[in-house]
Amino acid sequence: MVGGVGVGVGVGPVVAVVDEGGLGKRFWIKARNHTAAVLYSPFFVSLASGHLLPETFRHCISQDVHFLRAYAQAYEMAENCADDDEDKSAIRSLRKRVLEKLKAHPTLVQEWGFELPDESIPISATVKFTDFLLAAASGRIEGEKVPGKIATPFERTKIAAYTLAALGPCMRLYAYISSEIQALLKPDDSNHLYKKWIDSHSSQNFEASALQIEEMLDKLSISLTGEELEVIEKLYHQAMKLEVDFFSTLPISQKTVVPLARVHDPAEHHLTIFCDFDLTCTAFDSSAILAEMAIITAPKADSDVSETRLARMSSADLRNSWGALSAQYTEEFEQCVDSMMDGKRAEIFDYEGLHKALEQVAEFEKRANTRVIESGVLKGLNLEDMKRAGQRLILQDGCRSFFQKIVKNDTLNTDVHVLSYCWCGDLIRSAFSSGDLDELKVHSNELTYEESVTTGGIDKKVESPMEKLQGFNEILNNCNSKGKQLTVYIGGAVGDLLCLLQADVGIVFGSSSSLRKLGDHFGVSFVPLFSGLVKKQRELVEDGSGNWKGLSGILYTVSSWAEIHAFILGS
């Protein structure tokens, strides 16, 4: 548990500086909640499986003509606003591509193997987007004061930039979605019903168009003020949200595997979500937070602490002790993982072998906790200080909002349990209390106190993978009266492996090399979640299965809470 503590804990984390590129790329990165919502939508999961009902697809692409007309009109307005001849020419070429695609749309659809309906009426979500786009191209921005007559070149260029910001996400989103799906297809898979559509939208030409819009946005925005750039970003994200709304409102009349919480009837199924805390919910290990608190609040080396009832080490001694504990933990943990893989790699999933091997982790974690108690580094911490630290704890992006949406939705028959090795349950509870998440049930170790000050001891409740699994099973046994059980476990550490595998859906968050290495040695398969969902959707349609089942030896990997949110709750 002390592996997250470093000798330099007092100076804070070192953050690498990453070049995120231009405006379009930066906005795209920040919009990953929206992109995950579209990728994991019933429409695209079904399309990727090759089993989206043709009438649903036809309904969707029948809306393209309305979008394309609005794009062409918006580009024309942007071209008229652009001040530079080179910019005008670039925007004109973008408009020309749209007009060509609009003209060729019926033929393209036939090449994809479909026929358009005789008449296409824009649906509400389409109208909302096209109205928004043309309003931006006219300079009618909510909260933005634009002169009745756009007279100066600067004002006109600004409106052109606004238009490109509203257009940018559309092409980039399609390029991204189709590329993600393309990566799942076999090169010679000509039987996939939507392969030609996927090929078209993942082509180099399509990517070039998306890139050209982003480059044009960068150029038009170069002289804008900070406030105007904020408007640009707002327009980009509003356009993305309207795209999400479009795909989430498309009528899907077939059974799908997403979103998990809605495809299972809450009246019959009880969904229990389990989650680890450190580095799954949090950006930093909680032991590092406790170390920081201990060092900051410790007396100086020359202070007289002999009269205090709970005498503490000096801050310098504490820093050295934490550093030594951390280094020893890291070294011995790596040795422990290596020793568990001494034998031959399993050809098939070997749960019993993994369970037995993890007994070494249990012994290791208990020895490490005993060293922490004996060292006295957790002595003298104030309970209220810890609660305040918990409230300021940085959680992973999207984690808090995911749990908030669950607990505030009365229609979901769902419980959430946090199962953690963390030494301090109060830290976890306070971290979630700041988001009105008191309903989350926390199962962890607890620090021991005398009059709200820690004694240095730990009330040990969850120290090993086996104790996590025991807690997991006990919770489920208490939920049996709530209906058929469906379980999801979210975690990313070696200590989570048994629970991840026992759950109906085990979601591996992050990129722990130790977990991957150990799981692989015992025959565990790690599958990207989207890929796994596409396979489940295919099974659901082809043979009526597609059910989630624990102890399958398959774990699903994600890199963000946005993916978890989209999979379980949808948009």
UniProtKB/TrEMBL annotation:
Any single GO CC term annotated in Swiss-Prot or TrEMBL for this entry: cytosol
Coiled coil: none
Domain Thiaminase-2/PQQC: 42-135, 160-247
SUPFAM superfamilies per UniProt: HAD-like, Heme oxygenase-like
A Pfam family the protein falls into: TENA_THI-4
Record GO biological process: thiamine metabolic process
UniProt-recorded name of the protein: Thiaminase-2/PQQC domain-containing protein
Organism annotation: Quercus rubra (Northern red oak)
